[in-house]
């Protein structure tokens, strides 16, 4: 397959829960949906530009671009059309798709069903090693963004820029403030679970922010080889692949020439998700251009530990997180300590002319009114009924492709 160069294409994946349309209880209907379309449980659904596939658990379905798209233009409409099609299919089961990164009432220890068909051998092994009946495995819906690179020369600046952007993502995209009916105190609870769910073998996720490595050979030595060594006692039959084991917030896929960002909470509608994808993409381009003549500064200006500390702040406080690392803020183009919202305002100003009108409007709305976690908490009236009303409204936002 021909390798794409930097920004010659982009891949998007969106994960949705399937729930009862009245009670919001999760329903393991993914296999039913796929079988209706393909008469096979092991075949991905191909609907032209957008495809579907299963995930680890039987109540989640992933919608994704069928291979890399040429650009983000028009993708939100294609994803929305697919959401409406699936919702129509689910009506016969009195079910619907539910957005956001975490279900507000789901109890994974009691309700999780691992996908039972193709690839189950891998899922079952993960379950035996890590116990996947937990929020960090079965209650974390996200958007993944895939960026291509053709060789080490392109991988290096792309990986460097993505490392800088990763700590900021929860500030813009957090949508998981309520778990099992309770406000957690963290804006991005999904990501907090994500960074802890493989504590048994810490090297698999590392510090979520990937190490400062800038070639395939260095990645093999510093990331893939230690993962393979650590998992070996648990995977005697070598079922697990290094590409899937690597759980950093951005993973390098040298087998297909792409870096996949994995830490973005799912939003309430494709319009919001794709707007965030646009500014993430343009901010990465902006950083690469800004440091093109001093790439060593972008590669090594901030350590993984520095970036991890910023990430912990945005996981907990979202766009109100105070970023006091002046090396980081100076590299971004600001002075002194600033909150994460100010950084996103700055990045929006720097990239606005590159963004679609729809993305600009959606991002202005997020920056002015708060990320989705903040807006959920503002609407929350400290009762189960209030939470139910909020998440029914979010499901309506998904079906109508409008912001909450």
Question: How is the topology of this model organized?
Answer:
Elements lengths: L10 E10 L9 H9 L6 E3 L2 E5 L5 E6 L9 H16 L4 E4 L9 H4 L8 H11 L4 H4 L3 E7 L3 H14 L3 H5 L4 E2 L2 E2 L5 H6 L21 H16 L10 H4 L4 E4 L4 E8 L4 H21 L4 H6 L3 H14 L4 E2 L2 H7 L5 E2 H12 L5 H13 L2 H8 L4 H17 L4
Antiparallel strand pairs: 1-4, 1-5, 1-6, 2-3, 3-4, 6-10, 7-8, 9-10, 11-12
Describe this structure in words.
With 404 residues, this protein is an alpha+beta fold. The chain has one domain: Creatine Kinase, Chain A, domain 2 (2-Layer Sandwich). The chain has helices spanning 30-38, 75-90, 108-111, 120-130, 135-138, 152-165, 169-173, 189-194, 216-231, 242-245, 270-290, 295-300, 304-317, 326-332, 340-351, 357-369, 372-379, 384-400; strands at 11-20, 45-47, 50-54, 60-65, 95-98, 142-148, 178-179, 182-183, 250-253, 258-265, 322-323, 338-339. The strands form three sheets. Strands 1, 2, 3, 4, 5, 6, 9 and 10 form an eight-stranded antiparallel β-sheet that branches. A two-stranded antiparallel ribbon has the order 7-8. Strand 9 and strand 10 (258-265) form a beta hairpin. The protein is globular and about 60 Å long. The mean pLDDT is 94.
């Amino acid at each position: 397959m021909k390798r794409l160069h930097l920004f010659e294409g982009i891949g998007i994946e969106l994960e949705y829960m399937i729930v009862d349309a009245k009670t919001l209880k999760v329903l393991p209907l993914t296999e039913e949906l796929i079988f209706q379309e393909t008469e096979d449980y092991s075949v991905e659904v191909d609907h032209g530009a957008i495809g579907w596939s299963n995930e680890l658990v039987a109540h989640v379905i992933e919608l994704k671009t069928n291979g890399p798209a040429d650009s983000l233009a028009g993708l939100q409409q294609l994803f929305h059309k697919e959401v409406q099609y699936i919702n129509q299919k689910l009506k016969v089961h009195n079910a619907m798709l539910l957005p956001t990164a975490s279900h507000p009432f789901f109890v994974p220890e009691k309700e999780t069903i691992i996908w039972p068909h193709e690839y189950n051998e891998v899922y079952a092994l993960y379950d035996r090693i890590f116990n996947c009946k937990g929020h960090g495995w079965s209650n974390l819906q996200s958007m993944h963004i895939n960026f291509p690179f053709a060789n080490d020369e392109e991988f290096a600046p792309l990986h460097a820029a993505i490392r800088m952007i990763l700590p900021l993502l929860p500030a813009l995209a957090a949508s998981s403030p309520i778990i099992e009916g309770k406000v957690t105190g963290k804006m991005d609870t999904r990501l907090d679970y994500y960074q802890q769910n493989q504590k048994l073998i810490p090297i698999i996720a590392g510090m979520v922010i990937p190490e400062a490595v800038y070639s395939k050979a260095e990645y093999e030595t510093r990331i893939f080889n230690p993962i393979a060594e650590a998992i070996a006692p648990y995977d005697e039959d070598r079922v697990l692949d290094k590409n899937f084991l690597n759980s950093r917030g951005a993973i390098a896929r040298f087998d297909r020439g792409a870096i996949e960002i994995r830490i973005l909470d799912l939003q309430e509608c494709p319009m919001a998700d794709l707007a965030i994808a646009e500014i993430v993409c343009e901010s990465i381009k902006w950083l690469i251009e800004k440091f093109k003549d001093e790439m060593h500064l972008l590669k090594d200006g901030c350590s993984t530990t520095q970036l991890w500390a910023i990430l912990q702040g945005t996981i907990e406080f979202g766009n109100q997180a105070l970023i006091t690392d002046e090396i980081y803020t100076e590299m971004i183009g600001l002075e002194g300590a600033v909150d994460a919202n100010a950084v996103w305002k700055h990045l929006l100003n720097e990239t606005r002319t590159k963004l679609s009108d729809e993305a600009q409007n959606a991002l202005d709305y997020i920056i002015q009114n708060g990320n989705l976690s903040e807006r959920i908490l503002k609407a929350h009236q400290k009762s189960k009924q209030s939470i139910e009303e909020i998440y029914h409204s979010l499901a309506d936002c998904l079906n109508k492709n409008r912001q909450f």
